Batch of 2 targets.
Target 1
Amino acid sequence: MLRILAALDPYIERTAPHGRDNARGLRSLILLLRWSGLRIGEAVNLTIDKIEGSKLRLYTQKPGIQVCGVLPDFVVKTLQTIPRVNERFYFWSGIGNLEIAVGSWQKRIRKLMRIAGVKGHPHQFRDTFATELLQAGVPMERVSILLGHQSIRITEKY
């Protein structure tokens, strides 16, 4: 995680001027993924009304389960400072195909990871979120709920 965050400044410097706002928003997306356990599609589609103070409330993408979690203050602050194309969304214009927007963010994350010298994919942040909760003693049932899994069996499997 430290290497990925340290690679953000070189990533921004290597980005063409017209793409620098998105490059700056990448830090916020990485932190959101890491500290929320959201899937990348859920994070890119996140609207500002889903965060109240430090509470994150939304329905998950796959099973449509309502999830409520708490974000660290530094994650909320970084989300409040990113340049946005749309008043409603943090990481998407709200125009066009969401899958294309998600793909663009996935591409940025892969490029960032290459610069950081880290092998991986965006879903690793979700894995880290779950693993650290379990290591901290959070019951598997609660982790399953936070991940939006329909069943604890899914959580146990992964």
Note: The chain has one domain: 2-157.
Target 2
Amino acid sequence: MRSSLLLALTLVAACERPADRNVRATVYRALHGVLVYPNSLLIQMDAGDSAGQVTLTTVDSLSHVVAWFREALRLNAWALQSDAQDRDGTVTLYAEKNTRPVWVRLHANIGGPGTTYTVIGGIVAGDTVK
């Protein structure tokens, strides 16, 4: 019941404009092998020279989604380096796999049920994913 970032990117590909191709390629490279929460809806995708990010939302509770990410990272050989909660309830997870970093920032939706989260991955020297 895992949902991969590749699935989310594939769904967006049908709607992309030519200018979005570089963003999608960079996001794929930065987040290759990173899972997203099952049945999430893609809100936004963005990328720079050395990082890519996706923002998604789900109807499930913050506590449930955070617990899922903690377990999914562990099961997929990501070493959780930091797990912190801000005063406003936002949870930030930072993990590494080999030298690849990933950040997951999650917060409860305001005015309705569910969770919105952002997954950010960095592109490191020697990364060969194309």
Note: The chain has a mean pLDDT of 86.
